[in-house]
Structures are given as C-alpha cells and as structure tokens.
Amino acid sequence: MRRRSLAEMVVGDLTDKIKAGAFHAGDKLPTEPEVMSEFGVSRTVVREAISRMQAAGLVETRHGIGTFVLPPSSSATVDIGTVVTVRDVMAMLELRISLETEAAALAAIRRSDEHLERMGQAVAAFEREIAAGKLAVEADFDFHLQIARATGNRYFESVFRGLGHTTIPRTRLDTARIAAIAEPDYLTQTGREHQAIMEGIARHDAESARAAMRMHLSNSRERLRKIGD
C-alpha cells in the first residue's frame, strides 16, 4: 500500500503541473532520476506513476527518448487501480484478444515499412532487456502499440493508449505471482511469439498475423489461469 500511495503522490503532482501549464503538449517530462530526486522515491515508484499517467492518456513514453505530454484527448481510459486480481487481468486479456487479433490483421494489410521498422525496434529492445534480466514491460507495450498504430485506424491506438500498461499482465501481479508463471523460458517464449506476429505482418499475411496474435494472448491467459485455479 505504501508504494501505491507514493505513486499516487507523484501522479498527482505531475498531473497538477500539466493542468497548470507548467508542462505543455509535446513537452518532455523530467527524467526518471530527476523525478526520483525531486520526490525522494524509488525508480519502481516513478515507473508505476508514469504507467498510470499513460493509462490516463496524459503522457506517452517513446522508447529510449523519454516521456512526453500528450494533448488533451477524449480517448477511452481504464481505472488501472481496479485491475489487481488474477481474474481482473484475465478479463483484460479477453478484451485484448478481441481487440488485438483484428488489429494485427489490419496491420498486416496496411502497415508501412516505417511501421515494420518500429515493430522490429521494439522486438530488439525486448530481447535486450530480457537478456539483461529485466521484465521488458516498456518494450512489450511498445510492440503492441506499434501494431495498433499500423492499423491506420486512430481509434485502435486511442483505445490501446487508454488501457495503458494494464495490458501487460506482469505489471499487475505481485512478485510471488509473477514467479509462479515466469518459468525460465517464459519471456523468451513471449519474444518468439512477438516475432511470429511481426513475421505475419511483414508478409502482409492478415490470417497469419491474426492467428499469431491470438496464440500469443491465449498463451498468456492460460498461464494466468493456472495460477488462478
């Protein structure tokens, strides 16, 4: 509970500054170390705060660059504080299956070379982070976001941004539960699934992309089902 209250404090302060005009649309927020120093909190707290602000559609994180303020939007949002149990996360995955399988198919039809390059960058970042022993949450989210962008339909991106990091199951479960589903090759398998999705999109093969995305999200749901029984 303490970490959550600290994250809410950081969110509240940064949100107030955005609303007061201290940060405008397009402005880059202070870096993680700067926020840690200002509030006297850990990196984990800062990342949770930024995740909450992403879910609220206030900011976006550009991998390797920083976090930037978004213009006011009416995009759909989810109260990520309500996504806390295994059952909640499984329900989120059900929503993602219905949304992202079609997004992958549309991305395969409509993607540009630039879209594909950005997906490849996200996949490479994911592989680097898991090799370093990290959970690779940001790279995971970025990969799926790039697919939403490649649909050419702004509403897919809007909804996905609104959902924020609640879309990544391991951000919503405590360490013990992560350990229960994170067998040694769990993240390596996730990386292979990402690669299969991207390969379908690269070939402009809508059915393969759709099937690979469904398999990826269904595998995540099955892992969660095992620890929820």
Write the layout of secondary structure elements.
Layout: H1 2-20, H2 32-39, H3 43-55, E1 59-62, E2 66-69, H4 86-110, H5 113-131, H6 137-150, H7 154-163, H8 175-181, H9 186-202, H10 206-228
Helix pairs in contact: 1-3, 2-3, 4-6, 4-9, 4-10, 5-6, 5-9, 6-7, 9-10
Q: Overall mean pLDDT score? A: 83
Q: What's the structural domain tally?
A: 2
Helices and strands, in N-to-C order? HHHEEHHHHHHH
The CATH homologous superfamily name of the largest domain equals GntR ligand-binding domain-like
Q: Please state the oligomeric state of the protein chains shown.
A: single chain
Give the proportion of residues in helices.
Answer: 55-70%
- CATH class type of the largest domain: Mainly Alpha
What Rg, in angstroms, do the CA atoms define?
Answer: 17 Å
Main sheet makeup: 2 strands, antiparallel
- CATH fold group of the largest domain: Four Helix Bundle (Hemerythrin (Met), subunit A)
Strand content: under 5%
How many DSSP E strands?
Answer: 2
Instruction: Please give the count of helices.
Output: 10
Parts with pLDDT < 50 across at least 5 consecutive residues? none
CATH architecture of the largest domain: Up-down Bundle
**Structural class designation:** mainly alpha
| Sequence of strands across the biggest β-sheet | 1-2
Distance between the termini: 25 Å
Shape: globular
